[in-house]
Amino acid sequence: MIETLVWTALALAVIGVYLSWTAGRLDRLHSRMDAARGALDAQLLRRASVVIEVAASGALDPASSIVLYEAAHAARQADEEHREVAESELSQALRAVFADAAQVEAVREAPGGEAAAEELAAAVRRVPMARRFHNDAVRAARALRRHRKVRWFRLAGHAPFPLAFEMDDEPPVDLADRP
């Protein structure tokens, strides 16, 4: 009888340790996902800020400046549920304005334009990487949260189900190829 109780207690202890380890792993994945979301937000804000600076610099024609400025401003002011669409529209505006390599060269030839073009190129290259890191963290957290043990024992607590950030983040070809 005592031997059965000892083995049962040992089995329950092992199960408890395993569930605790799984809950800790899930917590670390959620922390990683939150950090990646913060980095993504920072890169999106940086991109919008650089686009506004380029649009206001006078290096582009007025129509292109207005298109870029309005798209960047909309991306910065968008609420969370419309942010993906606003950021996609900014990407589309960047591709439309910088579809011609002459536009990139016009920015580079303006006073202070070399640095602005390099900063813009860096900003549009970093957004897809930040989004990929965030979506990878979301994918890992979702995979663990789908396991039965996580659902049955409610190891995720009251944390909302993680959602990926889906947007059009294709950079303009002439800006993406810059060193």
Describe the fold and architecture.
The chain is mainly α and 179 residues long. It has seven helices and no strands. The chain has helices at residues 2-56, 62-77, 83-97, 101-109, 113-145, 148-152, 173-176. It is rod-shaped, with a radius of gyration of 24 Å.
Helix/strand-derived category reads mainly alpha
Strand content: under 5%
Ends apart, CA distance between termini: 74 Å
Low-confidence stretches: none
The SSE order reads HHHHHHH
Taking the sheet with the most strands, its summary is: none
Beta-strand segment tally: 0
Q: What is the residue-mean pLDDT, rounded to a whole number?
A: 92
| Helical stretch tally | 7
Indicate the percent of residues in helices.
over 70%
Rg from alpha-carbon coordinates = 24 Å
Question: What attributes does this structure have?
Answer:
179 residues; mainly alpha
Quick overview of this protein structure:
With 179 residues, the chain is mainly α.
List the helices and strands and how they pair.
Layout: H1 2-56, H2 62-77, H3 83-97, H4 101-109, H5 113-145, H6 148-152, H7 173-176
Helix pairs in contact: 1-2, 1-5, 2-3, 4-5
